[in-house]
Amino acid sequence: MTSTVTPDILEMVRASIGPAPDDFDLPLPPSNLSVEEEREHRKRELAAAFRVFGRLGFSEGVAGHITARDPEHPDTFWVNPFGMSFSQIKVSDLIHVDHSGNLLHGKRPVNKAAFCIHSEVHRARPDAVAAAHAHSPNGKAFAALGIPLAPIAQDACAFYEDHGLYSDFRGVANDIEEGRRIGVALGEAKAAILQNHGLITVGQTVAAAAWWFITMERSCQAQLLAMAAGTPTLIDHDTAVEVRNLTGNPVAGWFQFQPLWDQIVAESPDLFD
């Protein structure tokens, strides 16, 4: 496997570093892994992302799913078992399914909505390794407004001119046509707001997709609070683009998930079982 870290992105990451020792070690996404190593790495990140989502209260009954494309068979993906708590998912619990709906590995069924949405999102976005969708409280509330996120804070700039809006909600996603429409609304962006539904994010790593969802949920909360208090002041276009380029690139997404990764791995000895 080759790394997605390009020199320009690496330079932007270095631009965020203050005083440091000469021999400092900066964590970066692993590269040059074998197919087997890459598959295991993605599955570990996926299980960890579910635990983090559970910790942050993003679960809503059996709703919500995160997927990771298989590195050897890109028309297949790994996903959470239907009806299992995010907070209890281990690597061995993950389900493997292809885009045609065939179960390749696993002991439990797949959420039909997860298959209908994610199979089409992965099909529409061959560049995306992972996709995350959950019915998080602030995401649901903000999605009901049918408006995009505004650049009212530094964190929200990660999504400036880089998220779509799906305004054609037709009920629970029980057919692949709904997934296709979501894929179209997502376009080439890292995220989309699904009106009357919630949020969806994609990333070149599982960690990045998970982080985009987390910070988008919080950005929705911030804008809801600001709008309730008054009229938010927007960050100007040039500044918003500059901040997006620094904080909204793939490596920045992966990197910002690392403190959560370290915490959940340390607190979950059964995670990689």
TrEMBL record:
Cellular component GO terms, alphabetical: cytoskeleton
Parts of the chain that traverse the membrane: none
Gene3D superfamilies to which the protein is assigned, alphabetical: Class II aldolase/adducin N-terminal domain
GO molecular function: actin filament binding
Every Class II aldolase/adducin N-terminal domain range: 44-224
SMART domains per record: Aldolase_II
SUPFAM superfamilies: AraD/HMP-PK domain-like
InterPro entries: Aldolase-II_Adducin_sf, Aldolase_II/adducin_N, Aldolase_II/adducin_N_sf
Family under the similarity heading: Belongs to the aldolase class II family.
Listed name of the protein: Putative aldolase
Organism: Rhodococcus wratislaviensis NBRC 100605
